[in-house]
Amino acid sequence: MVDRRTDSEDGSRAKRQKMDKSGTDPRDNPYLAHMYADTSSNGNSSSQADNKNSAFAKLQRHKTTAAQAQKVEDHEINPFTQRPFSNKYLSILKTRRDLPVHAQRDEFLQLYQQSQILVFVGETGSGKTTQIPQFVLLDDLPHTERKMVACTQPRRVAAMSVAQRVAAELDVTLGEEVGYSIRFEDMTSSKTVLKYMTDGMLLREAMNDHELSRYSTIILDEAHERTMSTDVLMGLLKEVVLRRPDLKIIIMSATLDAQKFQRYFNDAPLLAVPGRTHPVEIFYTPEPEQDYVEAAIRTVLQIHATEDDGDILLFLTGEEEIEDAARKISLEGDEMVREADAGPLKVYTLYGSLPPHMQQKIFEPAPAARRPGGRPGRKVIVSTNIAETSLTIDGIVYVVDPGFSKQKIYNPRIRVESLLVSPISKASAQQRAGRAGRTRPGKCFRLYTEGAFKKELIDQTYPEILRSNLSSTVLELKKLGIDDLVHFDLMDPPAPETLMRALEELNYLACLDDDGNLTPLGRLASEFPLDPALAVMLISSPEFYCSNEILSITALLSVPQIFVRPASQRKRADEMKNLFAHPDGDQLTLLNAYHAFKSPEAQENPKQWCHDHFLSLRALQSADNVRMQLLRIMERSELEMISTPFEDKKYYENIRRALCAGFFMQVAKKENQGKSMYTTIKDHQNVLLHPSTVLAHDAEWVLYNEFVLTTKNYIRTVTAVKPEWLIDIAPTYYDVSSFPKGDIRSSLQRAAERLARKEKMRADKRR
Amino acid sequence: MGLAAPRKRTKISHDPNNTNWSRSTSGFGHKILSSQGWTPGSFLGARNAAHADMFTAASASHIRVFVKDDTLGLGARSKREPLDEPTGLDAFKGLLGRLNGKSDAELQVEQRKRDDVKLARYAATKWQAVRFISGGLLAQEKEVTTFEKARNPLADAKETPCRIPEVKMKAANATDNDYGEEVSDDKTESIDASEDSGSHNRREKDKTDKDSKKKKDRKDKKGKKDKKDSKDRKDNKEKKRKRAEQQEDSDNPLQTRTMENGTHSSNEQDQLPSDTVKERRPPGRHMIRGRYIAQKRKAVMDEKSLNEIFMVKS
Prior knowledge:
The structure holds two protein chains of two kinds.
Chain A: H1 37-40, H2 66-74, H3 87-97, H4 100-103, H5 105-114, E1 117-122, H6 128-140, E2 148-153, H7 156-169, E3 178-182, E4 185-187, E5 194-198, H8 199-208, E6 215-220, H9 228-243, E7 248-253, H10 258-264, E8 270-273, E9 280-283, H11 292-306, E10 311-315, H12 319-340, E11 345-350, H13 356-360, E12 378-383, H14 386-389, E13 396-401, E14 404-411, E15 416-423, H15 426-434, E16 442-446, H16 450-456, H17 471-479, H18 496-508, H19 520-525, H20 532-540, H21 547-557, H22 570-580, H23 586-598, H24 600-604, H25 606-612, H26 617-636, H27 651-663, E17 667-670, E18 677-680, E19 686-689, E20 701-709, E21 713-721, H28 723-729, H29 743-766
Parallel strand pairs in A: 1-7, 1-8, 2-5, 2-6, 3-5, 6-7, 9-16, 10-12, 10-13, 11-12, 13-16, 19-21
Antiparallel strand pairs in A: 3-4, 14-15, 17-18, 17-20, 18-19, 20-21
Helix pairs in contact in A: 6-7, 8-9, 11-12, 17-18, 20-21, 20-27, 21-23, 21-26, 28-29
Chain B: H1 19-23, H2 28-35, H3 89-99, H4 104-126, H5 141-150, H6 181-196, H7 207-223, H8 228-251, H9 253-260, H10 266-277, H11 283-301, H12 303-310
Helix pairs in contact in B: 3-4, 4-9, 4-10, 5-8, 6-7, 6-8, 9-10
C-alpha cells in the first residue's frame, strides 16, 4: 500500500519555493532557514503585548492602511514582544520592502477588508508566502479576538522553514508569536498568533472542531498544487464561511487556473501580483525523438559545448533513470574536458528518496574554471518533477524537458494505485520552462515537437483527488461531519466509481455500517494517519496477540523499501536479504530484518551494520520514528500492546492471521494450471509474484501489499495465508455464495467445510 | 508486429476492466450514492455548481493512461510502424470512402495523395534522402538575417548527427483544431503563412472557418492585454516563424506533401520521411560520430593541418 500520509517527506508532491532575493546564497533562501537556525532567531521572549502604549493601540481592526502598518513596522519597539527591534530586523525589513507584493499592500488590504474570500495570485518570487500572512496579521490583529491566523503549506519542510523565516522577519522567537504545526510536531504556544501548518494538519484539526473556531483568517497557500487536503479544505471552508461570517479566507495560487478558483469561490475578488521573472525562449525539436533519455543527454552535452555559461536543469522520471543519465553525462563531460578543453561539468541528482543532505548538494555553486581565464564550469541537475515547483535552484538558465513524469494513477475497477510514467500537462511544461528564467533570460529545450505539445499534452495536471484511492478521504469527510458525499462541493469531483469503491472498502472493513454511517471502529481508524486497511489491521491486532509485531510491520510498510539492491552487487544483496528471509512471506521478512536491526549487536554501529546487510539505514530509522508516533496514538486509544512469546509455534501464524484482518481485500489465489500465475479475488486479474519475493513455496493463497502495473502485472510484498483464516476473519467478504462458480469458489467451499468440521470437533470435545 | 519484434507474452485476464464490478448496481457504494440522490451517468459535486463547466472528463470516469515501458519520446511512434502497413489497405480505405458517400473526384484526390506518399517513401528508402536546412530567401537580406536569428543558436553547431531543438513549425500544425486559447494565435498565423505561399497543393480549406478563427484570434489578443509583458516577444517570434515556415514549405515539398494527407494522425506523418531516411544508431555511436565529424571540421579549419592533408609544403 502506498504511503498516503498527507505530509509525507518524500517530496514527491510538487511545491513551489519562493525566494526573497535573487542571490545564490542559500542563507537567503527562506526554505532553508531551518538549516541556519542559530543565525536567524535572536532568542527574545517576553510577555504578550497588551500594553496600551503598544503600536497596536492606534490600529483599528480591519480598518488599517498600508501606511499605518508601515509605521508599526518602523516603530522602535516590537509590538509583539515590547522589546526594541534588533538590527537584524531592520536589515530584513529593507529587503521585505523590495518584494513585489509590498507595492500592492494597500490594494491587498482593501480587498481583504471588503470581502470574506479573496483569491490572491502571485508568481514565484513575489514574496507571497512570507509577506501576506504578515500583512494580514497587522490588519486582522487576531490576538485581540483571542484567535489566530493560519497559513497552510502542502509540505512539512516548507511549513517549518517558512515559519522560521517569518519569525525572524517579525523579530520574535519561533514557537511563540509565530509557530508551526506539522504531523507529530507542534511548535506553538498560547501566544501564537500566526501559525504555519501543513494542509493535512488543518484538516485534522477540522475533524475535532468543525467550525475552525480558533482561527480568524485562514490562508491556503500553494492552492494551485491541488493536494488532496487542500481540495477537501476548500470544499469544507466553502461551507464554514456560510456559518461563520467573521472568518476570512485567502486562497493563494500561482497564476495557473486562477479563474477556476474565482468561479469556484462564488466570484471572489482576485488580486494578482507579478513575480520577478525573465523571458525564456522555447525550442522544440523538428521531429519526435526516438529515445528521450538519450536525446536529453545529447542536449545537455550540446548546451555545455555551445551555449554561454549558466546551469542546466534536466527533468527525468525516476531514480534509476536519473542516476543512469547522470553517470553518462558526467562521463561524456569529462571526456569533453580532456579532448576539447570544455569547462568542467558537475552533475547532481535530485529525487524524493534521496537523503536530505544529498538533496542539499544541488545548492552548491557551479565548479570554477580549471585555470584562470579558462572556460567557466557548469552544473547540471538531473531531477524528477520535484524541481518543477518544490525547489528553486538559482542560476538555472537552461531547462531540458523531455515531457514525461511519474504520476500517480488509481483505477477503481481493479483497485490499483500506481506510479506510472506519463506525459506531463501543458501547465507543467510551462512551469518547467519558467524555471529557466529565475535569475536571467533563459532557454528551454523541449524534446518534442510543437505539434506534440499542442496535441499530446493535456491542459492541466489532474489534481490528486482524481488520481487516488479515496478510502481515507471518505473516512476523513465522514469524520468532518459531511454525510452527503454526493453533493459535497469539490472543485473537481472524483469519478463516481472511485467514490463507490472507497465506500465499499470502508464497509467491508466495518468502518461504515450498512447505512453508510461511521462506526466506532471507523472513528478510531480515522485517528491514525494511515490507510484505513492498515489502521484496521493495527486496531484489531491485539485480538491476535501480536500488536507489537503488527505495529512494526505497519511502520515498515509505510516507509520506502528497506532492502537496498545496488546494480553492481545484486547477488551479494540477495544473499544478505536471505539471511532475514522467512519462508512464509515478505512481511515476516521485513519484521525479521527490523528485529535484527534493533538487536544490540546492530545498534552498536547501525550505519556499518546496515551497509553490511544491504539495508537502508534511513528507511529503518524513519520506520522507527513512524512506529513511535503510531505507538503514541495506540496508547492514547488504549489499545493493548502484546506479543506472543517467540518460542510459541503460533508466533508467526498469529501475525499472518492479523495481516489478514487488514489485507483480506488484497488476496490472490494460485491458478490450477499456469506456473506461478495468480488471480486476484473478486476482481479476477491475472498477476505474477514479483521477482523480489522470498516466498519459498508455491502458496495456494497469498495476500499482497501492492499491485504493480507494468506490462506484466505483479503483486509485491506477499505473505502466504490460508482460506480458513480469511473466511473466519472476514466472513462477509468471503461469503461463499457471493462468488461465481469456479476454482476460487470450490476452494473456499472446501475451506469452509474444514472450518465447520473443526468447529464441530471442538464443540464435541468441550461437551 | 514483424517476426523480429521482441516477444512480449502476457496473458490477458478474463475481464481486464472488471466490467463485472462496474456494471453491477447492487454494490454497497452504488446503494449509498443512489440514496443520496446520485443517478448513474451524472457527476458528483454540488448541485448547479458555478464552476461545473470546468469539470474535466476525469470527473466522469477514472484517468486512463498507457503503461509506458520504453524510452520512446513524446509524440514518437515506434520505428517499425509505418512500414508495417498491410498490403491493400489503401484500396480498402478507398472502398470505405465510397461507402461513406464520397464523390469519385474526392477519392481520386485522396488516392493521388496516398500514391505520392508511397512514391516519396520509395525514393527515401532507395536513395538516402538529402535533407536541407532553410537558408532564407534570396535578395531579401533583412529577412534572411531575422531568420538566422530565429534559429536556435545551437543549430550553428549542427551538421553533426546530433539533432537538437530547432525552431521549425510543421505545416501539419495548421490542420489541427482545439488547442485552447493559449495557442490559437500560433495556429492562425501559420494558416496565414501557408496561404501566402500558395505554391503547393493543399486541399482547399473552408474559408469561413479561417475567418472565424482570425476573429477569435483578435478577440483573444484583446483579452490577453494583461499578459502584455510576454506578448511582444511572442509576436516577434511568430513573425520569424512564419517566415521560417515559408522557407520550409518551398524547400521541402516532399515533407509538406506527406503531411497533407489528412486521414492519418499527423504524428505518424511527421515521422514518415525521417523514419525512412535515418536508420537507428545506438546512442554511443551518435556521439562518437559527432565527435569524429567535429574533429574533421576542425582539421579543415586549421591551415596547418589542411596543408598536411593536401601534402603542401609551406
